[in-house]
Amino acid sequence: MDRFQVYIGGGQGQQSGKPTIAALSEPFGIFTEENLLKGLDAIVRVHKEWGDRQNRHWGRLKYVVRVKGIEWFREQVRNIAGTIFEAPILDHDYGKRNLHLGWIKQYEPACHDSKSKWWYGAFIENGRLIDGGPNGDLKSMIKYLLNKYTTTQLFTTPNQHLLFSNIVDNERDEFESDMKLFGYGLRKGFTNSLENKSPRPYSTLRMLSGACVGRDTCRLTYTDSEKFEPYLIDALEERWGELNESIGVTGCEKQCYRPATKTIGWVGTGFNLYQLILMGTEDGKHQGVPLIDQETNEQYLRFVPRNAIAEVTDALFELYSENKSLEESKPGGMGYFFRRIGAKGIISSLKSNPKTVELMKRTFKI
Question: If you ran DSSP here, which 8-state letter would residue 310 be given?
Fold first, then answer.
């Protein structure tokens, strides 16, 4: 029988000037398939009863978990639904983040010929579909593909990419060739030079990174994210493009792209200003936080100008590349490197780096 480990209490959104937090969910318990919906219903009922209805900023389930504790929450669920779950596996490895890019074997037991069908996951930078952009004529490409491959259906992924389904074996090469007709797979404007428009294949850093929509279509954002992140990657790509790490950018502390779960996060704090978030890990096991010296309660890099973001990020990549351990050299190891040396080690390095020394002179008391 299938069993499911349920996690509760996660949420990345915060509110400036309010006592809010970004948090990863905690392992709650293991449910059988038969009891899963019953258990989820009980979890929602506990939140309905105990969630803060007077203060909308504290209305989410994560604050009930934070105030009351996970064991208290389990007991409430038992009172409603009985003992219908087992203790969770606290160190359960749920695997790496899957972006669903490239060719993926399609399997549906009900379809006799399904073994010869494939998905194709197309990288769509920040989910933006336009013609005439640096990534090609994507709108025209999708229209052409759906008209030509009539059995194909289109899906979106949680990371804003596209999945094409029902592609048969003997159509795969032709399908990829048709995508290339529209410039798919290459990005123009690779280097810092505005005159250099030579197309270059998408780098690992670019495909793992991303941003929320930001301006001009979100009324909550302070500054650009989607319109800034691709150019940030342009500035870093020549030197660091093959790093198996990610950068997340959001226009405000609502953090819709979840930058605190990426290797390096940048969160908008004002127009063309961003706050650095570190200590998150690619495997989703650790929550990123602002750069704070816990001994002095000083926060660093809270209002970094847009034109300095690439240099700060470059300095962090340098720090990692020069000091990483063998274990931290593996994909996704940079977050663990930052956690090992801690905020104090990062602050000390950035204070001595010519690229960041001036920015590190400005601090904020927490």
Answer: H
